[in-house]
Amino acid sequence: LEEMGLFTVQTQVRDKEEYLTRPDLGRRLSEEAKAIIRERCQMKPQVQIVVVDGLSSTAIEANLRDFLPALMQGLKNVGLSVGTPFFVKYGRVAVMDDIGEILQPDVVIEAVGERPGLVTAKSMSAYMCWRPRHGTIESDRSLISNIHDGGTPATEAGAEAGAAVAAFAKRIFDNQASGTKLANA
């Protein structure tokens, strides 16, 4: 994370045990996290990138080095500006709603470590949402999943998945919709 220049904030979760037993707390940022984000991030960016450990920090370690630079370049290539990327510890997908409330971006892209044990602990996903806020429902989120060396490889996908996520984010931005609303746009 330091190598990638990402600062870290934490949800309301205190430790791994609480993360597993209280998913609701992983969907909300701590008050300290909110203050740090307000202080360090650009308000109202077109795209806000967030990296979240989720259920597998191994997935982030395995993929982020290749994925993030390609995503940043891909967004630049499609003409979208990016706010200040950062990392959320003990986060769940819906933490993007808190981030949306604070920074008010048009699109949030959340790279998150997925549930280990399905095939690998290295599987990362990119969730994307048009203007997420409290009350956003799961069907309003779009997803590119299975980013790992046995699925959509981050090394190839660093260029490939990063470009695919960037192109998808551009589609969300242009249609001002994500999830099922984008499918019907």
Give the secondary structure arrangement, pairings included:
Blueprint: E1 7-10, H1 16-21, H2 31-40, E2 47-52, H3 57-77, E3 86-89, H4 95-103, E4 107-113, E5 124-130, E6 141-147, H5 154-175, H6 179-183
Parallel strand pairs: 1-3, 2-3, 2-4
Antiparallel strand pairs: 4-5, 5-6
Helix content: 25-40%
Structural class based on helices, strands and sheet pairing: alpha/beta
Residue runs with pLDDT of under 50 for 5 or more positions? none
Average of pLDDT: 88
Q: Please report the distance between the alpha carbons of the first and last residues.
A: 36 Å
Number of helices: 6
The dominant shape is: globular
Order of the strands making up the biggest sheet: 1-3-2-4-5-6
Oligomer category: single chain
β-strand amount: 15-25%
* Strand segment tally: 6
Explain what you see.
With 185 residues, this protein is an alpha/beta fold. It has six helices and six strands, in the order βααβαβαβββαα. A six-stranded mixed sheet has the order 1-3-2-4-5-6, sandwiched between helices. α3 crosses α5. The longest helix is centred in the C-terminal third of the chain and has 22 residues, at 154-175. The model has no long low-confidence stretch (mean pLDDT 88).
List keywords for this structure.
single chain, 6 helices, 19% strand, globular
What's this entry about, in short?
It contains six helices and six strands. The protein has 185 residues and is an alpha/beta fold. Strands 1-3-2-4-5-6 form a six-stranded mixed sheet, with helices on both faces.
